[in-house]
Amino acid sequence: MAAHCQVTGAKPAFGHSISYSHRRTKRRFDPNIQKKRYWVPSLRRNVTLTVSARGIKTIDVRGIDSVVAELLAKGVKL
């Protein structure tokens, strides 16, 4: 499975590595993806999400219930 955040939608970006001599080679910038398990009171069960570090902070601010409700509205299987 590709490195993709279920909350923020972050995915790998592509660019160049630039050496000291300024020679450019292609590289890939991967987001900081973690697999986290959350207890969702509205569903009365644990949900495992693949989230980035920014996604974890978003869940802390908005709450897991609102984030899961938004994911279910999008049609994401949890």
Quick synopsis:
The chain has 78 residues and is α+β, with helices and mostly antiparallel strands. It contains 2 helices and 4 strands.
Describe this structure in words.
With 78 residues, the chain is of the alpha+beta class. 27% of the residues lie in helices and 36% in strands. The chain contains 2 helices and 4 strands. The strands form 2 sheets. A two-stranded antiparallel ribbon has the order 1-2. A hairpin with a 4-residue loop joins strand 3 and strand 4. Helix 1 (53-62) crosses helix 2. The protein is elongated, with a radius of gyration of 16 Å. The mean pLDDT is 95.
Strand order of the largest sheet: 1-2
Structural class: alpha+beta
Main sheet summary: 2 strands, antiparallel
How big is the Rg? Answer: 16 Å
Strand tally: 4
pLDDT < 50 runs, ≥5 residues: none
Spatial separation of the terminal alpha carbons: 15 Å
The coarse silhouette is: elongated
Rounded mean pLDDT score: 95
Beta fraction of the residues? 35-45%
In which range does the helix fraction lie? 25-40%
Q: Provide the succession of SSEs.
A: EEEEHH
> Number of DSSP helices?
2
